[in-house]
Amino acid sequence: MKYIKIIAALFLCLSFTACGDDDTIIDEVTGRVFEGTVANGLEDCGWLIEINGQNYVPNVLNSQFREENLEVFLKVEFLNEPANCSQLALAPERLRIEQIRVVQ
Q1: Helix (H) or strand (E) holding 97
Q2: 70 lies in a domain?
Q3: Is 12 a member of any domain?
Q4: C-alpha span between 41 and 86 (Å, rounded)
Q5: What is the CATH number of the domain that holds 50?
Q6: CA gap 83, 73 in Å, rounded
Q7: What pLDDT, in 10s, does the model give residues 26-50?
Q8: Of 1, 44, 49, 83, which cross-links 31 as Cys (Cβ 3.0–4.6 Å)?
């Protein structure tokens, strides 16, 4: 009887921590921070991050990382939605920063 209670408790714990419908994918990348006000067509985008030649608008970028040409290592979720800050045909997309640190 004791083992059945233990197994039942484990089953309940696992069922509450099981994967849900959340399809969040976190990628590890390096990028370069830059201010959109100095880039043609991105003036209204604020601070951006260039990753593999493509520009992204972070949902939040802490002020300690707002430095022109700062190389950073990031864990991000690419949101696959365009930012509405540019009139360019290829407007930058949004991303969510999970972790960020300066590349040394």
Answers
A1: strand 93-102
A2: yes
A3: no
A4: 6
A5: 2.40.50.500
A6: 22
A7: 999 999 999 988 777 888 899 999 9
A8: 49
For residue 37, give the 3-state DSSP assignment.
helix
Residue type, 41: G
The two three-digit tokens of residue 47, written as one number: 């601070």
* Helix ranges restricted to H, 1-104: 2-17
> Residue 66 to residues 21, 30, 49, 55, 91: CA-CA distances in angstroms?
34, 15, 10, 15, 21
Q: What's the predicted TM-score (pTM) here?
A: 0.75
Pick from 82, 73, 15: nearest CA to 49: 73
**C-alpha to C-alpha distances, 35 to 12, 23, 42, nearest whole angstrom:** 49, 31, 9
> Residue 5: inside a domain, yes or no?
no
Q: How many domains does the chain have?
A: 1
N-term to C-term CA, the chain: 57
Residue 90 falls inside a structural domain: yes
